[in-house]
Q: What sequence folds into this?
């Protein structure tokens, strides 16, 4: 297989997941719009008025909504506003993988040894991603367009294509940025974390700039440049200088990444550390945690887990800081109370409960999927086999994995929860201690369920685990979002892991759902152990 | 009780890959060499014995313990050096040792320091900074550190320089001295000859020969190339017993000589030789000559 073919194949998982997300979101949002916005001009006007107010309160996450009385305007705000971050996330994973992951596995060395120049190697990796990203965007646009046709509000293809181009360039920039960061990092995980963290900060700067914050530096954010264009609106805004600036920044990042790759040592960072001067040792580490079940894994991942804990603390502080402004704005609009009541958030405390509960839940699911991805890597890179050469049962290894996932999730959730509690107190927002504690603890049932499903898949076909869990997360989110809108049966709604969790911090625990989650967690773990017993291990 | 016993052990990956109908016994205290070219089925056999993969049929046991059903007990008495090294990325060598020793249980790392010193391995460095040879040394430390009753070593000297190969042979001798059984997989003939009592040869997923090392030496042969100053003594060369695959052209002769060099030297007496080359044949050449 050619280098280009291999490079394409390395993006297969991302291609499948992102194509599915793009097409499904495109279809779902267009069809949902018809359901929730109504069909008469009067219905549309009411909908637009209400949601423009809501959207302005969500401006820290999404662009300012405009023209919500049209499907195109709704998509511009709801779908393409969110897609910037979703596609950026994928690009970070792909860029760090192309820039460092393949190197970690020795693949780059192998290719270079065959006579492929470094320039050609990295150019092919970039080209392959651009081809895949272009295809994904095209599939997403196709899904969206088909949805608009079904919804009898066919989108004009030209502006839709321009929107796709804007998204593609943003995605390419994030890939290039991650590729550049990968030249100075020493591991794929480190590269992904640094690149992602910087992009998250730039995303928040863009969000803050919508309400007057950080305006002087907002142009530094690729998301700000992306948001300049809104070709689906009636004015067909396509900010060529902003798009060109984003494209130019992409080219510069790529040039720097390629230059760095050309001069640095393979397997090393561009920033070379000083030569080690420590004394040689022939003794095992004295770190006691490395010898303890579950804690050994936590110990190995300490930097990663601490990073997530820090992220949760920052996020918690940010959410609490915007709570009063948002709730005050919402409650000042009488017609909006109905909507707020449906959310269950009518005061500062319930608003904090809802927004924290839902955000933390999504993020901790993501964290669980990352943890499962490390199991897959352990298998592929021989660490699992090394562990199994010791006198430990496969059941012990499987339980150790799930246990460490739950404990790591508990640490991350606890850090965020403590930050929420302290920040709420500082902001004079009184949370119900009982519900907050019980809801926070109950949240662990969700990563347990994800981990257990991951254990079943990893015990059977390890490489399928992450794609399957990603599909479960997306399906759970979409089912939770759309089941009430389309009035789907209760059992369909309850097929969502997030719906099963409910809103225990805001409304109290629904034990039925939590018990189902626990049953999935425990039953899945048992099945995972059983599947793992019979599987051949090794590369 | 045999250290290793297999009965019809089979892992069939199709198209003649894997290991088929393996009947093998390795005695307690024996050093057994498991020879074969790449892809012959050596690693598959070892991974079956370690319980990493499930047999298609047949069974294997280690000191009477079933390799599948009692694999945890098996691994308690086995030290294993894999043929393909795992990737521990940013872990330090001492962390890898502590983690795996922790899985094995307390007191399992008593010999780490002396073995690491003998192999000249610095455990304070990160795994990704190790050369291939140092990774191999770490794998050997992990295999030997708990004084196992049985050592299963899959191509253990791969990547080691000659100096540290000698250190490895000393480790094997010491282990043998305390009564350990050693199952050594290799495709290096001289290495097996150096340390083993008995060998098994596997080719194309089947065990084709088991015998003592002397028998292997008996089947040893040499690839010989001679360039004569004038015409070669064709008839005398053809009359030599044990000289096979003889090819003569102009002043040049090649062949595979099995057994002693004396008949060849006698046939060459009085001839003017421009060059004489003799080398140990590859395992594949032995297979070709011995099993045709």
A:
């Amino acid at each position: 297989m050619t280098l280009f073919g291999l490079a394409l194949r390395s993006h297969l998982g991302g291609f499948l997941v992102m194509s599915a997300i793009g097409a499904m979101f495109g279809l779902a949002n267009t069809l949902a719009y018809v359901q929730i916005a109504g069909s008469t001009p009067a219905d549309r006007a009411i909908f637009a008025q209400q949601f423009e107010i809501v959207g302005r309160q969500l401006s820290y996450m999404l662009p300012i909504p405009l023209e919500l009385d049209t499907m195109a305007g709704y998509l511009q705000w709801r779908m393409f506003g969110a897609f910037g971050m979703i596609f950026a996330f994928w690009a970070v994973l792909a860029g760090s993988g192309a820039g460092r992951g393949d190197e970690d596995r020795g693949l780059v060395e192998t290719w270079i040894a065959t006579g492929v120049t470094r320039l050609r190697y990295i150019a092919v990796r970039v080209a392959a991603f651009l081809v895949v990203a272009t295809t994904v965007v095209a599939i997403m646009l196709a899904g969206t367009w088909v949805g608009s046709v079904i919804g009898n509000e066919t989108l004009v293809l030209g502006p839709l294509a321009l929107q796709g181009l804007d998204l593609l360039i943003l995605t390419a920039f994030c890939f290039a940025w991650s590729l550049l960061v990968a030249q100075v990092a020493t591991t794929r995980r480190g590269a992904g974390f640094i690149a992602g963290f910087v992009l998250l900060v730039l995303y928040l700067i863009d969000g803050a700039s919508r309400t007057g914050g950080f305006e002087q530096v907002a142009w530094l954010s690729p998301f700000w440049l992306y948001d300049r264009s809104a070709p689906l609106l009636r004015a067909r805004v396509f900010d060529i200088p902003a798009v060109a600036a984003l494209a130019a920044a992409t080219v510069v990042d790529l040039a720097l990444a390629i230059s760095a790759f050309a001069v640095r040592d393979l397997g090393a960072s561009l920033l070379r550390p000083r030569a080690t001067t420590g004394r040689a040792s022939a003794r095992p580490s004295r770190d006691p945690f490395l010898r303890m079940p579950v804690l050994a894994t936590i110990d190995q991942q300490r930097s990663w887990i601490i990073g997530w804990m820090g992220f949760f603390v920052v996020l918690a502080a940010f959410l609490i800081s915007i709570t009063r402004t948002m709730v005050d704005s919402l409650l000042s609009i009488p017609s909006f109370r109905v909507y707020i009541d449906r959310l269950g958030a009518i005061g500062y405390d319930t608003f904090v409960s809802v927004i924290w509960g839902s955000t933390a839940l999504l993020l901790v699911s993501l964290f669980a999927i990352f943890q499962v991805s490390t199991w897959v890597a352990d298998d592929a890179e021989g660490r699992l086999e090394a562990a199994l050469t010791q006198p430990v049962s496969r059941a012990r290894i499987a339980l150790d994995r799930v246990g460490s996932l739950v404990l790591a999730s508990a640490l991350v959730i606890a850090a965020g929860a403590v930050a929420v509690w302290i920040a709420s107190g500082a902001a004079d927002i009184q949370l119900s201690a009982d519900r907050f504690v019980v809801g926070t603890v109950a949240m662990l049932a969700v990563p347990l369920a994800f981990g257990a499903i991951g254990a079943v898949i990893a015990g059977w076909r390890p490489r399928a685990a992450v794609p399957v869990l990603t599909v479960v997360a997306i399906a759970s989110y979409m089912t939770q979002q759309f089941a009430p809108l389309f009035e789907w049966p209760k059992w369909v709604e309850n097929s969502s892991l997030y719906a099963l969790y409910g809103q225990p911090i805001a409304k109290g625990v629904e034990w039925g759902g939590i018990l189902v989650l626990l049953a999935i967690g425990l039953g899945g773990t048992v099945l995972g152990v059983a599947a793992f017993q019979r599987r051949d291990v090794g590369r | 009780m045999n250290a290793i016993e297999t009965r019809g052990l089979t892992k069939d990956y199709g198209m003649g890959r894997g290991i088929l109908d393996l009947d093998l016994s390795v005695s307690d205290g024996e050093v057994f060499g498991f020879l074969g070219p790449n892809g012959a089925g050596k690693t598959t056999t070892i991974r079956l014995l370690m319980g990493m993969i499930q047999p298609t049929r047949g069974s294997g046991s280690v000191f009477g313990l079933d390799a599948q059903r009692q694999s945890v007990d098996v691994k308690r008495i086995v030290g294993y050096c894999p043929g393909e090294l795992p990737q521990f990325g940013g872990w330090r060598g001492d962390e890898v040792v502590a983690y795996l020793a922790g899985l094995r249980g307390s007191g399992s790392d008593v010999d780490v320091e002396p073995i690491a010193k003998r192999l000249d391995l610095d455990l304070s460095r990160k795994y990704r900074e190790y050369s291939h040879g140092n990774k191999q040394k770490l794998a050997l430390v992990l295999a030997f550190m708990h004084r196992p009753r049985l050592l299963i070593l899959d191509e253990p000297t791969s990547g080691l320089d000659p100096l540290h190969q000698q250190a490895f042979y000393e480790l094997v001798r010491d282990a043998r001295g305390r009564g350990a059984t050693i199952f050594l997989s290799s495709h290096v003939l001289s290495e097996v000859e150096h340390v083993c009592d008995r060998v098994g040869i596997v080719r194309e997923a089947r065990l084709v020969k088991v015998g003592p090392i002397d028998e292997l030496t008996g089947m040893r042969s040499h690839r010989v190339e001679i360039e004569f100053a004038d015409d070669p003594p064709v008839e005398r060369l053809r009359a030599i017993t044990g000289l096979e695959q003889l090819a003569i052209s102009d002043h040049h002769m090649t062949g595979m000589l099995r057994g002693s060099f004396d008949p060849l030297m006698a046939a060459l007496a009085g001839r003017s030789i421009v060059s004489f080359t003799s080398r140990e044949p590859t395992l594949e050449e032995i297979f070709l000559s011995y099993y045709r």
About this structure: Chain B is about 35% helix and 30% strand. The longest strand of chain B covers residues 4-14. The first helix of chain B runs from residue 42 to 49. Chain B has a mean pLDDT of 90.
